[in-house]
């Protein structure tokens, strides 16, 4: 079974992963952009119907996914995965 081959997961690994993530400026910038986008959607719900806001948001997510395809070094297929993906073995 594949799950039995990943090794043990401890709280030290989780803390290390969180520390590495918090130090990554690109991740922090993306998180800030996502938070701003979410707040914009909440504000848009005050001005427009839910169906319109959902449609615009979904199309925006599709455009961002297409534009970012292959540009993130942490995505599958990259030459070096982030440190958080390394399991002790």
Account of the 3D structure:
The chain is an all-alpha fold and 89 residues long. The chain has one domain (9-72). 62% of the residues lie in helices and 0% in strands. The chain is built from 3 helices and no strands. The chain has helices at 11-23, 25-47, 50-68. It is elongated, with a radius of gyration of 18 Å. The model has no long low-confidence stretch (mean pLDDT 76).
The separation of the N and C termini measures 15 Å
Categorize the overall geometry: elongated
Radius of gyration: 18 Å
How many E-type strands?
A: 0
Percent range of helical residues: 55-70%
Q: How are helices and strands ordered from N to C?
A: HHH
- What structural class do helix, strand and pairing data support? mainly alpha
How many helices?
3
Short overview:
The protein is mainly alpha-helical.
Topology diagram in text:
Layout: H1 11-23, H2 25-47, H3 50-68
